[in-house]
Design goal:
Homotrimer. It comes from Nonlabens arenilitoris. One of its GO terms (biological process) is lipid A biosynthetic process. This protein has about 350 residues and is an alpha/beta fold. It is about 15% helix and about 30% strand. The chain folds into three domains: about 90 residues, MurE/MurF, N-terminal domain (Udp-n-acetylmuramoylalanyl-d-glutamate--2,6- Diaminopimelate Ligase, Chain: A, domain 1, 3-Layer(aba) Sandwich); about 60 residues, no CATH class; about 130 residues, 3 Solenoid (UDP N-Acetylglucosamine Acyltransferase, domain 1). The strands form six sheets. A twelve-stranded mixed sheet has the order 8-11-14-17-20-25-28-31-34-37-39-40. The longest helix is centred in the N-terminal third of the chain and has 16 residues.
Length: about 350
């Protein structure tokens, strides 16, 4: 789809320096810009590229003044980074602005849905499902019985939403994610075998949550596993049964949170973190990558290590960790002198 520079400037409430009728059809980095693309400049170290870029248009801050001739058209805005983000969001909106039911697909006769539904070929929506306005469901998605999905949600290809799951508004679930599979619950027997504990609870995903590709969120044993509003989960994350992830918490890839742990709001959890079960992680906690958490964490803490402890203490201790061999030799020498 093509847009003129004028149309884009209208969307961004910007002013044009150059050719307002220039057409663009794609987005690009400024250093990789080519004819027909639009880019942006916000970081000063990329300024030299604006004089060499082949992008047809570049979004810049209002105070940008070139000191060389330009071959590109400028769109001047108050904040170029925010404006380009707005343009990306607009591009996404257009990209996923599909509607209608493609065939072959399955939409049970009992399904209730709002306007703007898009159901791609080979998608399956089971009985008693409720879908809000402008829900987009892509190919090979499976939505089981009694699921509720709010307005403006996107379920990408191959995702699985299991029975009784409740999803709020403006939620994006990326390809291959599984929401509502059984939690890992087994009771041991005296002979070393295990009995399956029925997982009869549900998953609740609140508004404005983003769930990455191949992430799994287990249903509760009883009650609910809850992902609260504004949380952002990266790819390949495991959320165990009865876990609660707080508002606006962000979790990086390959992290695992074991059953019944409560993670507070506005936490920042790095990649490959392991968090044990039945813990309480406070609000505004930072957990550095590859940390192992086996105890409760207080509000506003920043921790690292395995087992994880205070980030500052970990950094100071690391000086000793990496010199252990040398320190061991010095201790051995001292012991010889004193023997």
């Amino acid at each position: 789809m093509k847009f003129t520079v004028q149309q884009i400037a209208d969307i961004l409430e910007g002013t044009i320096v150059g050719d307002s009728e220039m057409q663009v059809s794609k987005l690009s980095k400024i250093e990789e810009g080519e004819a027909g693309s639009i880019s942006f400049l916000s970081n000063a170290k990329y300024t030299p590229y604006i004089y060499t870029t082949n992008a047809s248009a570049v979004i810049v801050n209002e105070d940008f003044v070139p000191d060389q001739d330009l071959s590109t058209t400028l769109i001047k805005v108050e904040d170029s980074y925010s404006a380009f983000t707005k343009l990306l969001e607009y591009y996404q909106l257009i990209k996923f602005n599909k509607s209608g039911v493609e065939q072959p697909s399955f939409l049970h006769e009992s399904v209730i849905h709002g306007d703007g539904l898009y159901l791609a070929a080979f998608a399956y929506v089971s009985q008693n499902v409720k879908l809000g306005e402008n829900v987009k469901i892509f190919s090979q998605v499976h939505i089981s019985d009694n699921v509720t999905i709010g307005d403006n949600c996107i379920i990408h290809a191959g995702a699985k939403i299991m029975s009784d799951t409740i999803i709020g508004n403006n939620v994006t679930i990326h390809a291959g994610a599984v929401v509502g599979a059984d939690g890992f619950g087994f009771s041991p027997n005296a002979d070393g075998t295990y009995n399956k504990i029925p997982q009869t609870g549900i998953v609740i995903i609140e508004d404005n949550v983003d769930i990455g590709a191949l992430t799994t969120i287990d249903r509760a044993t009883l009650g609910a596993t809850v992902i609260k509003k504004g949380a952002k989960l990266d790819n390949q994350i495991q959320i165990g049964h009865n876990v609660e992830i707080g508002e606006n918490t962000v979790i990086a890839a390959q992290t695992g949170v074991a059953g019944s742990t409560k993670v507070g709001k506005s936490c920042r959890i790095g990649g490959q973190v392991g968090i044990s079960g039945h813990l309480t992680i406070g609000d505004n906690v930072g957990i550095q990558a590859q940390s192992g958490v086996g105890r409760n964490i207080k509000d506003n803490s920043v921790i690292q290590g395995s087992p994880a402890f205070d980030y500052g203490d970990w950094n100071r201790s690391y000086v000793y960790f990496k010199n252990l061999k040398k320190l061991d030799g010095r201790i051995a020498d001292l012991e010889k002198k004193n023997s």
